[in-house]
Design goal:
- By secondary structure, the protein is mostly helical.
- Helices cover about 60% and strands about 10% of the residues.
- The protein is built from four helices and two strands.
- β1 and β2 form a beta hairpin.
- The model has no long low-confidence stretch (mean pLDDT about 90).
Length: about 100
Amino acid sequence: MAPEGATIGEIAEHLGVTKQAASQLVDDLVTRGYADRNPHPRDARARLITLTGRGWACTRAADAALAEFAQHWTDTLGAAAVTELGRSLAQVVVPGRVRPNW
């Protein structure tokens, strides 16, 4: 999420889900202390969703875990094999919206 926040519509678009699904996800994040709903500076009808300190800490931890995972694969398979694996997976991934199953 951008440091300045995002609207529910922007989050929905980014995730490829409906606004209702994004709103439910944000409700859960707010309840758990990972995000806040703030007044939008230019649109009184909208709210800006921002991450809390806890939310940013979780994001940093996820980024670090992904980097560690990627490094493990590179160390095990080699950089060329990991690059080729990425290309191969990109050919079979179905682009577009994914229906959430929560």
